[in-house]
Amino acid sequence: MQVDVIRLDEKLARFEGHWAPRIIAQMNDYHFKLVKILGEFVWHSHADTDEVFLVIEGRMRIEFRDQSIDLSAGELCVVPRGVEHKPSADAECHVMLVEPADTVNTGDAGGDRTAGQIWI
Amino acid sequence: MQVDVIRLDEKLARFEGHWAPRIIAQMNDYHFKLVKILGEFVWHSHADTDEVFLVIEGRMRIEFRDQSIDLSAGELCVVPRGVEHKPSADAECHVMLVEPADTVNTGDAGGDRTAGQIWI
């Protein structure tokens, strides 16, 4: 049995590019992922699951149809299942996501920004 | 529909005392908790679930029967289900835990350090 220390900074240094989450840990059937974001993502929702965003560095916005929230480092939110949302960031922002292992980044929207399941 | 911004620092300022996790968010049937730790906890395991420790501030150690790991701010680990572990910290350390909503802090060990389910 080997339990590894997972360093967020070290994992973040391993990849570039935006909106393509990398998996860094699995707890039961949930994945912990890191993603770098910049600009606007697509409107989408996840019918079957909530989703947690925890900002590690920088600032991001999540728009909903009836409100928007700004998140800075050390802040998190839970996007409820089925709720349409559009993440964005004016400058590169580093985020940790927690969600079920089969969650697709674009949810119901699909399209060419759909990312694969990549471990780092 | 109201999505709240959850600030870790602000939540940490709301409580004192050690080894008594406070719940700050729920994602599906999982809880995100904050805990302040100091000194040694009890040896215990969780038969039915993995458990994530993410250090927010300070340093902690987790001893296992066959190894030990040190975690600093920005580092996380996944303690596998059924694996005995004993967390400790030489100075106060602030940690975020992620685990199923019914997880008891002392696992199979029970005893007087078993904490209730307290939201902040």
> Would you give the CATH topology of chain A?
Jelly Rolls
Largest sheet of chain A: 8 strands, mixed
**Residue runs with pLDDT of under 50 for 5 or more positions of chain A:** none
Q: Kindly report the average pLDDT value of chain A.
A: 97
Q: Tally the helices of chain A.
A: 1
Shape of chain A: globular
Summarize the structure.
Two copies of one chain form a homodimer. Chain A is 4% helix and 50% strand. In chain A, 35% of the residues are buried.
Structural features, described:
Helix content of chain A is 4%, strand content 50%. Chain A is built from one helix and nine strands; from the N terminus they run E-H-E-E-E-E-E-E-E-E. Chain A has one helix spanning 8-12; strands spanning 6-7, 22-27, 30-40, 51-57, 59-64, 68-72, 75-79, 85-100, 118-119. In chain A, strands 2, 3, 4, 5, 6, 7, 8 and 9 form an eight-stranded mixed beta sheet that branches. The model of chain A has no long low-confidence stretch (mean pLDDT 97). Strand 1 of chain A pairs antiparallel with strand 7 of chain B.
Helices and strands in order:
Two copies of one chain form a homodimer.
Chain A: E1 6-7, H1 8-12, E2 22-27, E3 30-40, E4 51-57, E5 59-64, E6 68-72, E7 75-79, E8 85-100, E9 118-119
Parallel strand pairs in A: 2-9
Antiparallel strand pairs in A: 2-3, 3-8, 4-7, 4-8, 5-6, 5-8
